[in-house]
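Chain A, query sequence.
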Amino acid sequence: MQDTIPVARSGNNDISLVLKMANRHGLIAGATGTGKTVSLRVLAEHFSSLGVPVFMADVKGDLSGLAIKGGENTKVTGRIRQFGLADFKFEGFPVIFWDPFGAQGHPVRTTVSEMGPLLLSRILNLNEIQGGVLTLIFRVADDNGLLLLDLKDLRAMAQFVGENAEQFKVA
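Chain A, predicted structure.
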C-alpha cells in the first residue's frame, strides 16, 4: 500500500499528503483559479483508488466529471508530458449524486428528529420564541422516546404539547 498521495508538483518538488496523517477534517482555500477544485479532485481520486469512501459537497458541479473516464485533450496531454507522468491513465470513479429533491440524483432522506430543532428553525425561518417552542417539542419527544419521522409526526407532537402545556411548564 502506498504511504502518500501526490497532490501537486512545483518544479522537481512533489507535494504529498502522508496517508497516516489524513483524517476526515480538511480545508482547501484560495482565490479563484488557484487549483482548489483540481486539488479536491486529485485527493478524491486517490482516496477512491485506495477504497476510501469520499463525500464532497459540490454546489457548482465542478467535480461531477469524476464519474466519467477522461479522454484525450491537447491541454491534458501537454500537462501529462510537462509533469512526466509516464504511468498516467484515464479512469472513472464511483460517484453517487445526492439531490435534496430527488429530481436529478439520489434523493437525500432524513427524519425530522435527525434534523433537530436548530436546523429546522433555520430552515423554517422561525423567530426566537418559535424556535424555543420547537426545541421544547423536540425535548418532549426525546424524553418520551418518540422519533419524529416526518412533518406529520412533528405536527402531532406540537398538537400534543399544546394540549398538555400545563404539564410542561417549569415551576
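The chain has five helices and four strands. Helices lie at 36-49, 74-82, 112-123, 128-143, 151-163.
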